[in-house]
């Protein structure tokens, strides 16, 4: 493998990503000098001595948190539970400096979103094109079936959300090699008709760009593209939270890239006078890729159910009941021990939920309300009435705020109920596999 040190693809607080080239050989050949195959890869390398520096900083932070918790006798400080919050942060950051964890996360995300199955279908379909003139009829029939399957996968109204594939054998604590999501172009010619002089050729070309590039395009076509990206982005996040319970917690615009795929049909016919070629773009579609899967979180079953009940209560306008359920399920709470505390907490939840529910008349769009605002107010209410919530919920709130802002920039008219309903009520259709 060759790493190009002058071609930096990205840099963060713990690692830097370079463009690289991986050379492999045909598995059926013993001669290492024959049939070399090259492919571009992204090589992520930890900064020197980052693990030792991080351990020192985290140890200092944990000790300060414990000191404040034990020496300041204020109830609000105790409710914050700084040692537990620090412990949660330490766990997240330690995983950041072990790239084997990120490799495992990527594999799990790819499994959850059916990436390997989709890639295999495409590989099988493009491995050989049907040619009645050169191949046997059975081979042509089989290849034709694979091509039809691949076309169906591309044309179905499914969200194409994917993650880079870690390269097997190139995953270590301080180095992670992934497939590079880059521009490409392939051509597939299908011979048909009674003469080889007549053929249909389909060229598939793609360009890759950060999703932030779409936010500055206010043209009619640009707005159409932004609307097409907003829906699968929101559905993917809801799937992570409510279906998989495995959530990417670093989905800022720099970690989201888009592959724009143009499918072009070339219709070339031979005539006595000239060759006439007609070209037309048949389809334009998008594939969204999430990068940098080092920070993930999962909710406990109790908190996951509380979150689902909260969204359901907004739909059904039943905040009082979800307030009672949250108190009953809490590992630690002092709300029920305070005279009138349970009723006050339930009424507070009812007020928050009713406010959001009443906005349904004008449409629960990303431009009108904020999911992050809803979750933030609920957490604040829990703090006031001392109803314990797992620190992982804070990660969900932050991730929601970031992704919600991105979704609002893409399409502020997107209706939250339309997308959240199947995830919180049930009967979710798997749109990703």
Task: Give a written overview of the molecule.
The protein has 14 helices and twelve strands. With 433 residues, it is of the alpha+beta class. The chain is globular. Residues 145-157, 186-201 and 268-279 have low confidence and may be disordered.
Low-confidence stretches: 145-157, 186-201, 268-279
Specify Rg, calculated over alpha carbons: 26 Å
Task: Quote the distance from N terminus to C terminus.
Answer: 32 Å
Mean of residue pLDDT values: 76
What's the story with the biggest beta sheet? 5 strands, antiparallel
- Percentage of residues in strands: 15-25%
Structural class: alpha+beta
Give me the strand/helix succession.
Answer: EEEHHHHHHEEEEEHHEEEEHHHHHH
List keywords for this structure.
433 residues, alpha+beta, five-stranded antiparallel β-sheet, five-stranded mixed β-sheet, 12 strands, globular
Provide a short characterization of the protein structure:
The chain has 14 helices and twelve strands. It has helices spanning 50-71, 75-80, 82-96, 99-112, 115-127, 137-155, 212-215, 220-244, 301-316, 319-329, 341-358, 371-384, 392-410, 416-425; strands at residues 2-11, 15-25, 36-46, 161-162, 166-171, 175-179, 184-191, 199-210, 247-248, 256-270, 275-290, 296-297.
């Amino acid at each position: 493998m060759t790493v190009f040190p002058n071609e930096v693809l990205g840099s963060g607080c713990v690692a830097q990503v370079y463009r690289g080239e991986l050379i492999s050989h045909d598995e059926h050949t013993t001669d290492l000098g024959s049939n070399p195959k090259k492919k571009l890869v992204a090589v992520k390398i930890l900064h020197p001595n980052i693990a030792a520096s991080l351990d020192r900083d985290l140890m200092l932070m944990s000790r300060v948190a414990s000191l404040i918790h034990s020496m300041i006798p204020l109830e609000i400080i105790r409710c914050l539970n700084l040692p537990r919050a620090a412990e949660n942060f330490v766990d997240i950051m330690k995983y950041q400096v072990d790239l084997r964890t990120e490799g495992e996360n990527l594999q799990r995300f790819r499994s959850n979103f059916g990436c390997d199955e989709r890639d295999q279908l495409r590989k099988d379909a493009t491995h050989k094109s049907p040619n009645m003139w050169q191949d046997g009829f059975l081979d042509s029939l089989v290849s034709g079936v694979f091509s039809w399957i691949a076309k169906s996968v591309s044309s179905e109204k499914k969200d194409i959300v994917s993650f880079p594939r870690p390269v097997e054998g190139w995953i270590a604590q301080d180095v992670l090699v992934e497939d590079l999501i880059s521009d490409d172009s392939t051509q597939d010619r299908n011979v048909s008709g009674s003469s080889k002089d007549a053929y249909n050729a389909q060229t598939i070309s793609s360009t890759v760009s950060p999703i932030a590039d779409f936010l500055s395009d206010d043209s009619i076509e640009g707005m159409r593209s932004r609307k097409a990206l907003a829906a699968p982005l929101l559905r993917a996040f809801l799937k992570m939270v409510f279906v998989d319970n495995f959530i990417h917690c670093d989905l800022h615009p720099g970690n989201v890239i888009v592959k724009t795929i143009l499918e072009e049909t070339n219709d070339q016919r031979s005539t006595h006078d000239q060759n006439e070629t007609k070209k037309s773009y048949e389809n334009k579609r998008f594939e969204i890729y999430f990068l940098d899967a080092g920070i993930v979180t999962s909710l406990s079953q109790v908190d996951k159910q509380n979150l689902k009940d909260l969204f359901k209560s907004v739909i059904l306008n039943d905040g009082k009941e979800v307030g009672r359920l949250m108190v009953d399920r809490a590992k630690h709470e002092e709300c029920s021990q305070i005279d009138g505390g349970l009723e006050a907490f339930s009424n507070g939840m009812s007020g928050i939920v009713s406010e959001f529910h009443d906005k349904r008349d004008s449409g629960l769009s990303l431009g009108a309300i904020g999911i992050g605002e809803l979750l933030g107010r609920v957490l604040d209410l829990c703090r006031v009435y001392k109803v314990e919530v797992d620190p992982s919920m804070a990660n969900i709130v932050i991730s929601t705020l970031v992704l919600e802002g991105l979704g609002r920039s893409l399409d502020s008219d997107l209706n939250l109920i339309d997308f959240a309903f199947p995830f919180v009520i049930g009967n979710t259709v798997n749109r990703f596999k």
